[in-house]
Design goal:
Homodimer. Helix content is 38%, strand content 20%. By secondary structure, it is an alpha/beta fold.
Length: 279
Amino acid sequence: MQVVRTIADCRTATGAFRSAGETIGLVPTMGFLHAGHMELVATAKSKADRVAVTIFVNPTQFGEASDLDSYPRDEERDLEMLRAAGVDLVLIPDVSDVYPDGDETIVETTRMANILHGEVRPGHFRGVTTVVARLFNFVQPDVACFGEKDYQQLQIIKRMTRDLAFPIEIIGVPIVRENDGLAMSSRNVRLNAEDRQAALVLSRSLDAAEALKNKSVDSLRDTIANTIHAEPRATLRGLDIVQAESLADLAGPLTTPAAIMLSAEFGGVLLLDQRVITP
Ligand code: AMP
């Protein structure tokens, strides 16, 4: 496994793959890897000859500096996991390489970035598309894998890839969960024991919504909100029920697949969960 820290070294490595006629699958991450990330790696391996992983805690997608500073990091452990999984190339770029001096270029999906979670976290998705477009350019992969856990992010990246005609297939990978149902996240380690237990309310509320007989946007929303509000340690931050691909508003009885995007805070830690529900 090659570990590179500059764009030039990355290009040398990917150039060698490409001249050998090999395809490249990319998995962008912010590190502190867990089984969710490794599922993306496994998917990339099944779709391409070589797998490249990037580890980059992207400053432009964090609203508050404190959230960026407290983001967990463990490069040595990450590299061990990636080596064990048979990854070919890891790019760990420097902030000054990704955002060179005098940088003034942004990439933004103008509608999708500023609705739903984007309203709660202004600028977040602009930061995501700006960095992913750059990572796509550094690595020039044939396929790239993203988790359905960050559902709006996945749809935004699909739209950006189409709009900018990146010749890259975007693959969405279902959420990997802990045994008790909590969606795996690098942020979970920041939860204290009580909040870790309380956070199960996220997946439980989605189970309750999915089990409803007569599904309407209102019945889904009420079921989820009531379940979350019954947990005193949870502060509901976002509950959106939208058309699964366009993220357009939905109302009334469910007639098309709907994506439920849920976020809540537990002791200052923002957690996400998501489910696509069919009528
Ligand atoms: P992050 O390091 O949090 O930026 O995540 C990197 C990628 O892993 C993103 O595409 C996430 O959607 C994906 N991911 C994170 N957690 C999970 C999970 N529990 N299951 C599947 N994919 C995940």
